[in-house]
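Researcher: We plan to redesign the surface later, but first we want a full-length starting point. Tokens attached.
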């Protein structure tokens, strides 16, 4: 396989992962905390930026029925609440070493 094909495959894989991990946030919100956390994870992700009116539209209410940011979609899982998003990301991507390993005593 030549280098162009290899890098094409890598780009496609990154795009697939980015579609799998989506942060809904707005720069004028506490979503910045979740944005910082997702950056620390180091995985490809995509950002959707609902403004403060579209947050109450059906398309976004289907993601977060509270109509607030941030929200995270990871595959079929949707997580809301900034603290919960940070905890979820730390557990879902243990290789980033942002939380102690999950153990029964934790
Ligand atoms: N407890 C939630 C609060 C989320 C929240 O209130 N987000 C604000 C932005 S900082 C929001 O989306 N406000 C829109 C609204 O309430 O209409 C969290 O910590 O994530």
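Model: Full-length starting sequence:
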């Amino acid at each position: 396989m030549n280098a162009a094909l290899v890098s094409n495959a890598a780009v496609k894989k990154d795009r697939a992962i980015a579609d799998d991990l989506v942060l809904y946030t707005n720069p004028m919100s506490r979503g910045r905390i979740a944005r910082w956390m997702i950056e620390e994870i180091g995985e490809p992700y995509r950002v959707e930026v609902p403004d403060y009116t579209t947050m109450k539209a059906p398309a976004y209410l289907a993601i977060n029925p509270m109509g607030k940011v941030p929200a995270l979609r990871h595959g079929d899982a949707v997580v809301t609440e900034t603290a919960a998003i940070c905890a979820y990301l730390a557990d879902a991507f243990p290789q980033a070493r942002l939380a102690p390993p999950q153990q029964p005593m934790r």
